[in-house]
Amino acid sequence: MNGNNKYSIDLDLEIKYQPLEIIDIPQLIEECTSKWQNLSLCNVNDSVIRLAVLEGVFHWHRHEKEDEFFFVIEGILLIDLGDKVFELKSNQGFTVPRGVMHRTRAPSRTSILMIEQSTTKPTGD
Predict the structure, then answer these.
(1) pLDDT band at 119 (very low <50, low <70, confident <90, very high)
(2) According to the model, what pLDDT value does residue 2 have?
(3) Which of 22, 25, 65, 110 is the most buried (most CB within 10 A)?
(4) Of the candidates 53, 62, 60, 52, the residue with the CA atom closest to the CA atom of residue 5
(5) How many domains does the chain have?
(6) Mean pLDDT of the chain
(7) Residue 80 falls within a domain, yes or no?
(8) Which helix (H) or strand (E) holds 26?
(9) 4 within a domain of the structure (yes/no)
(10) Distance separating alpha carbons of residues 76 and 81, to the nearest angstrom
(11) Structural domain harbouring 55
(12) Burial track 60-89 (b if 16+ CB lie within 10 A, e otherwise)
């Protein structure tokens, strides 16, 4: 993979689940058909929980006012921060602090949960 890969993200910002509803994560992952799909599952206080199924390279970006937490469900997620690369495997998490330039990469189909403030623009500022 190189940094010039193009992607088309299927971004759904509408909250899908309200409190007291069961969210079947494996079923949602199975139903994802595009290489980049991002679903806003639910709100928890001032945060949104998002499910992403991805493969390929996302663009460099930052979130000026919000931290971003990534949790790998299955697959491998690479997070580039300048000249450092962090490799997350299943059941590992990582927080990118606000204002830090980063990009994510998935060498194969990977599913992750993201926790971020509801004001966070998923594609960056």
Answers:
(1) low
(2) 38
(3) 110
(4) 60
(5) 1
(6) 88
(7) yes
(8) helix 25-31
(9) no
(10) 16
(11) 9-117
(12) eebbeebbbebbbbebbbbbbeeeeeeebe
Cα separations in angstroms, 3 against 68, 80, 84, 120, 121: 21, 11, 15, 23, 21
72 pLDDT more than 70: yes
- Residue 28 resides in a domain: yes
Please say if the pLDDT value at position 74 is more than 90: yes
Place 34 in a pLDDT band, splitting at 50, 70 and 90.
confident
CATH code of residue 51: 2.60.120.10
Q: How far apart are CA 98 and CA 55, in angstroms?
A: 24
Helix (H, G, I), strand (E, B) or coil at 28: helix
Q: Which long-range contacts (CB under 8 A, 24 or more apart) does 90-95 make?
A: 93/69, 94/69, 94/70, 95/67, 95/68, 95/69, 95/70
Cβ atoms of 111 and 105 within 8 Å: the answer is: no
Please tell me the distance from the alpha carbon of residue 55 to that of residue 36, in angstroms, as a whole number.
6
Residue 54 in contact with residue 107, Cβ under 8 Å?
no
Q: Is residue 46 part of a domain?
A: yes
Which pLDDT belongs to residue 5? 44
Q: What is the mean pLDDT of residues 113-120?
A: 83
